[in-house]
Amino acid sequence: MKPTIRDVAKMAGVSISTVSRVMNAPDTVVESKRSRVLAAIEELQYQPNSFARGLIYKKSFTLGLFIPDIENIYYSGIIRGVQDACIKLGYSLMICNTDRDKDRLLAYIDAFHEKQVDGIVFASDMIFPEYYEKLSGSRIPFVLVSSHSYQYDIPSVEIDDKAAAYDAVKYLIELGHTEIGMIGFNHENSIAGPPRYEGFVQALTECGLEHTIKRVKYASHRFEHAYDAADELFSEYPEITAIFCVADEFAMGTISYLNDRNISVPDQVSVIGFDNLRVSDMYIPKLTTIAQPTYDLGYRAAEKVHELVTTGSVDVLREKMDHELIVRQSCREK
Amino acid sequence: MKPTIRDVAKMAGVSISTVSRVMNAPDTVVESKRSRVLAAIEELQYQPNSFARGLIYKKSFTLGLFIPDIENIYYSGIIRGVQDACIKLGYSLMICNTDRDKDRLLAYIDAFHEKQVDGIVFASDMIFPEYYEKLSGSRIPFVLVSSHSYQYDIPSVEIDDKAAAYDAVKYLIELGHTEIGMIGFNHENSIAGPPRYEGFVQALTECGLEHTIKRVKYASHRFEHAYDAADELFSEYPEITAIFCVADEFAMGTISYLNDRNISVPDQVSVIGFDNLRVSDMYIPKLTTIAQPTYDLGYRAAEKVHELVTTGSVDVLREKMDHELIVRQSCREK
Questions:
Q1: Where are the annotated coiled coils located (chains A, B) (predicted)?
Q2: What interface predicted TM-score (ipTM) does this complex get?
Q3: Is residue A329 part of a domain?
Q4: Which is the most buried residue in A33, A252, B21, B295, by most CB within 10 A?
């Protein structure tokens, strides 16, 4: 028969709640009791049962992670970061793929509530009021990564999307391009869509290139949609010589479209991406792009959830991390 | 106060174990009792608490999934399949990234044991005796996906790797190539490495091309390693006109290498991949490849775990699914 917390308490001659405190907040237990408990745990080879532990402490030592699209390569870096932080902090990680489906996401919040996960990292999706109400109602602490909310005071970690987009477009302008297009995220269902568009507009405006601001088409997260958007963009504005794509998937879709039309990248058209996915370095041509620190974003988000879970609040509510321009082969001077 | 299973039993006038059976094996409960229990659940708006449920039924309604490398795009299709099956079957899914690290994997088995997950899907890694012993010792049912074991009787779902590799190489031969190379998985740490090599050898032998069998270099799962392996292969055998790559990542690494050396694919060298990742259709050139039904493999693996969990055994121990040659643009006639 497996030893229980009761057996440990009995052997150590202390109460069950003391054993619990030794495991969860050892500093609150006097040294003499603490060492007796630790000795009993070792002698009995006691392994806490997470169900029983859940009932006693209302902690499951599990974090949940919502990913909007597990097939989108962007999230793999975030997942690694979240998971490595979980390993360091002693949590198991339960990853769920929501497919940006409201009903599925709401059902997962119920599942996480039922499993009493200690906290949730919510990756790069919009926070709709239904989500906020359900998450708040469930009293599970949560943190946004690659996302933010100005409507609610939810802790978040992301880059400065507007500044990053500005840097990308400024780079194209510095290469001598004046006829610049953009393939952006639909604004209705994307948190990064509006600020990246603002960065595009700001760079063009500052440089007196207002005439090219209207050359924007939108796509929804997938390569294939960007391929179609590039088709529309070039059919309408064949004079374009450079394109700012708000995702590396979009850059690949755009280059794939141009290649199918025998338009050479970067000889005839320059394409800059966003994200710096692993694949951007294996693409033909290798993508010039804006790097997001996806691993660090994920790692920091998990740390912030831990901060919330253990202290009830966070030091910095909305945190920004640095982006970086990575120059490879998909852009050249006009 | 939230209603408990006790409240439901009381209102329905049945025992707690009857309520449990209504929720988990309704066919075993007579209709009259079953409808009383369902009415009580509805009236009390009873939501089972997974911790309490775990203690009572020793079931957590959670499956675990081990992924060897969450950044490898190959796994996203498997994850989606496993997860969609979990949704259908009523399980939450806990995904863990092992990085092919033995100690981490063993620690995760402990974590899953502690959380009493009902079953585990173990994706495409070798089953070392330590894993098998720990998993068997923990009495968690488990199923292999994109992997198998002949040493142990573990249920598995995969494609026929040898036949798939044979088809890839046969295709290159039918295009007129006689100087064929291969970039394979290291045999020590890959379950698919040896059978894919055997398929390569079989196709060449059948067609009288034994002289080209030795043209093989190995890489370990990542694009960058395949880039280096392609460098070795072409330095040693510059006469090669076609390459069989055992993964689309390897095909991209190889094409990236050739492109950096100004060798055109497919004009000068044909490259065939394996997997049919989403990215294979966005690559330049679009990859000709062997498609694996990754979504179906994942879905079926989760169904098999469920079969094991609910019946204690599986109908078919080692299951094979079909592969398919997808002809795109990275190969052409010699």
A1: none
A2: 0.78
A3: no
A4: A252
